[in-house]
Amino acid sequence: EIHIKEPIEKEVNPRLLPGELLLCEASTVYKYIQEDGSNRGTYGKLVCTNFKISFLDDDSASDDNEPQFKNKIVGENDITLQCVDQIYGVYDEKKKLLTGQLRKYPEKLIIYCKDLRVFNFCLRYTKEEEVKRIVSGIVHHSQTPKLLKRLFLFSYASAAPNNTDGRNQTVMFESLEDWRDELERTKGNVKYKAVTTNEGYRVSEKLPLYFVVPICISEESILKYEGRGIPIWCWSCHNGAALLKMSSFPKEQDDSTSQMQKAFLDGIYKTISKPPYELLKMDDLSSSLPSLQDIQTAYTRFKQLFLIDNSTDFWATDVKWFSLLESTNWLEIIRRVLKKAIEVAECLEIQHTNVLLIEESATDLCCVISSLVQVMMDSYSRTKSGFQSLIQKEWVIGGHGFLDRCNHLHKSEKEEAPVFLLLLNCVWQLVQQYPPAFEFTETYLTVLSDSLYVPIFSTFFFNSQHQRDTNKSGESLKTQGGPFRFLTVWDWSVQFDPKAQAFLNNPLYAEKPKPDKSQRKTARFKHQRQLSLPLTQAKPSTRRGFFREETDHLIKNILGKRIGKFINSSDEPPNSLREFYDSWHSKPVDYHGLLLPRIDGPEIKVWAQRYLRWIPEAQLHGGGTIATAAKILDLMEEVQSLQVKMDEEHSQAVSGDVHSVPMLRNSARLSSLFPFALLQRQSVKPALPTSTWKDLEDEDDLVKRDDEFVDLSGDML
């Protein structure tokens, strides 16, 4: 049975951005609403531009049904070309991956997106000529290799007016002054210096224009091997210990070259191991963490669990959800990365040792670990502007290859790896474990992950600062040959109005109290004492895991060596690290001090908002973190309106300084899909034991039968 919404009579035209061109379109396309297992849907027009694929129905023309959390750039039925993951055609009920030239055109089109949305379009009622144009147009513009200058980023930059707020308090690290300010903020300016050696990119095109090195490193050393083998400063701890990174030399070289490089490295290590520098610990991340290929493989498996285009698939995977999840290895990779960050934090905090992270290019896993360590140890990085400045410093200016790792140009799948997504997944673990410590919300992290695929911002569309600078000059329509004015993703007003932006800010953030001038010295000393932890455990941890300290001795006596082997398995952290971890978790959390993630067993969770937000079957009615947030925001709104009334009574004037908070009435009607999708109907899970259901899943009458004891949440949640 097909429930059909009549074809639209009035002409609906796409809303085009500056520089956006309509390339092809098809009318009478039927879009399925895959939410309850039926073939319900709506007719409309499917269009492809140089920026996006868009479906337009009669609802697109009216503003009555607008979602509360509306993105001004990418609508509900819009898919940017960079967000398209895979396109399948359905021929006689068989799915086939569409690439390159097509000989036969499908009757259905399924588009899987990188933000995990799935779109189903039926083309049976569309004219044959239009089907050919739209299918070949979509496949060509979203899947074939591109030149960098063909990205919509350049079309938009040359045509859009420059009237945005700009930087939004985010430090961009594009000037020498920004680096000097950061050195001063972290008290690292005594032992480290910002250098201008790479001006004009004379050292290396991979390095930023300005960066920071130990004071004892000479300009000749930096120039000798194009910046390789040079420790580059990331951050300084309150006790003077510093986090450094270094790109290693290629492994396959002739003996004389490798001997010279070894001698060069020995000289560098000796120089930075002498006073006033702390002892140095080196950590080669390429051998102590999973490879980029392993990360890509794990994520590819993991995302398949969420790219669900019908209810049958959902309930089929729900049966074996936990085993499927474990087999992807994605959560284990997150756990290993967090554990590595704890190791580095322990070296800096307890051992007062400098840590040098080594990687081939120092622009992938180095970025992940250095960013995580700073989020864990520096409360400034847990504010919105601080976190954005951190991403600018370590990733955008630091030279992470967003263009290659996200495969924006479809040039090589070998280079693709979700390294930045891995960082966001790790930060999310901390955000959900310690919500009051962060000024931003999980919705902020989700929106940031979506922004990876919106090519109107330059932030995530270049491999290095050099590549961005060299492509900045071009023929701009406005300035007649002047440089392009690229937007930065940190100006959230481009994507969201103030009401929607309120969802990005945490109303329960425990803001750091500003000490009085008279108490400043005492406060600083107290803060340092809170950060520093004793090596011995003061009291047994209440959150330690399955084995309490009091019962360890008894259990070992009863179970003998077998349990000893289990506890001291190679996967367990070393003793000093375990002591550090347990000692920290046995104390009350200081939200402005050091934060250590809980990494034992089931503490590592799936980022439900990002991965389940488009699956109606997975929603919690009136539940999830958004239900709590809705109540809090309602209370804030009430408090603010009372404040306005009080101000009116006192000054007979309305205060103009009240921040807008979204109206969240009827919060009971919200579901865990909010704010990305509204409450939706869903298919009903058969109320049978899993094994029975699996045996009988072909029997339609049993599978579809409603039952008053239906479990709506599913095993998945």
Structure description:
Among the domains are: 22-144, Roll (PH-domain like); 176-312 and 330-503, no CATH class. Residues 475-480, 520-572, 654-658, 663-668, 688-694 and 696-717 have low confidence and may be disordered. The strands form three sheets. The chain has an eight-stranded antiparallel sheet with strand order 4-3-2-1-8-7-5-6. A four-stranded mixed sheet has the order 11-12-14-13, sandwiched between helices. Strands 9-10 form a two-stranded antiparallel sheet. The longest helix has 27 residues, at 625-651. Helix 8 packs antiparallel against helix 10 (321-328). The protein has 26 helices and 14 strands. The chain has helices at 58-61, 128-143, 152-159, 176-185, 219-224, 255-273, 285-288, 292-304, 311-319, 321-328, 330-349, 365-377, 384-396, 402-405, 419-433, 442-450, 465-470, 498-501, 520-531, 549-559, 561-567, 575-585, 608-612, 625-651, 690-696, 700-703; strands spanning 22-32, 41-49, 52-56, 78-80, 84-91, 94-97, 108-113, 118-122, 192-195, 211-214, 232-236, 242-247, 280-284, 354-359. Strand 7 and strand 8 form a beta hairpin. The protein is globular, with a radius of gyration of 28 Å. It is α+β, with helices and mostly antiparallel strands and 717 residues long.
